[in-house]
Amino acid sequence: MIRVLLAEDQAMLRGALSALLGMEDDIEVLGAAADGEAAWRELQRLKPDLLVTDIEMPGLTGLELAQRIQRHALPIKVVIVTTFARGGFLRRALDAGVCGYLLKDAPAEDLAEALRKVHRGGRAIDPNLALEAWGEADPLNDRERQALRLAGEGMSAGEIAAKLNLSQGTVRNYLSEAIGKLGVGNRIEAYRLARQKGWL
Fold first, then answer.
1. Which domain holds residue 102?
2. What range(s) does the Response regulatory domain occupy (predicted)?
């Protein structure tokens, strides 16, 4: 039996995934979380074999969850199911130890098969994305990415500094570095370009 935890912030999709996987004889859905922090708590409590997660969620993103699982050396394999068909996201996912990366518009039967493949020790990656992922490298480091994401959400340097426990000067440096690396004129353009490339 493949024991699965779902992490998806959209209630209808969370229910649909749970119902879909529940119809499989060899897959048991242990639980479902609506945000990244709740998923992290449930992972430690339920100890599933696999985490099926979206990327964009409140609290922790799916990629941050995967990084945390990797950092704590938990024996849980991660499969991302997302709308983000961008090579930059896939590269970051692979760097975080993710074993599966599927798009939400893939046929439903592909998901159960992908989970079986990952559970057996394989990888399940959308083939078109796999090609694209080895294109342009992500120039941002984690701190630049965090600062840029928050700036794109409308936060000031002071608000970002408070949220990340940094000085305003350090935040301004991170944003300036990100703008320079992306070759754009300001933080909003940097945010847009980085999102478009899948680097945020």
1. 2-133
2. 3-119
Report the amino acid identity of residue 111: L
Q: Are residues 124 and 146 in the same domain?
A: no
Residue in the structure block whose two tokens are 């320079």: 180
Helix (H, G, I), strand (E, B) or coil at 78: strand
3-class SS of residue 133:
helix
Cβ-contact 123, 113 below 8 angstroms: no
What would the pLDDT profile of 96-133 be if each residue is shown by its tens digit?
A: 999 999 988 888 888 999 999 999 999 999 876 766 65
Distance between CA atoms of 109 and 114, rounded to whole angstroms? 9
Structure pTM?
0.70
Helices 187-197, 168-182: axis angle to 10 degrees equals 60
CATH number where 56 lies:
3.40.50.2300
Please tell me what DSSP assigns to residue 121: T
Q: What are the residues whose beta carbons fall under 8 Å from the beta carbon of 153, sequence distance 6 or more?
A: none
Two tokens at 80?
Answer: 């991302």
Distance from C-alpha of 12 to C-alpha of 184, rounded to nearest angstrom: 38
Identify each DSSP E strand in 58-164 by its residue range. 77-82, 100-103, 124-125
User: What pLDDT, in 10s, does the model give residues 148-181?
Assistant: 999 998 999 999 999 999 999 999 999 999 999 8
Q: Which phi-psi region, left, alpha or beta, contains residue 185 (left: φ > 0; alpha: ψ -120 to 50)?
A: alpha
Question: Using only C-alpha atoms, what is the Rg of the chain?
Answer: 18
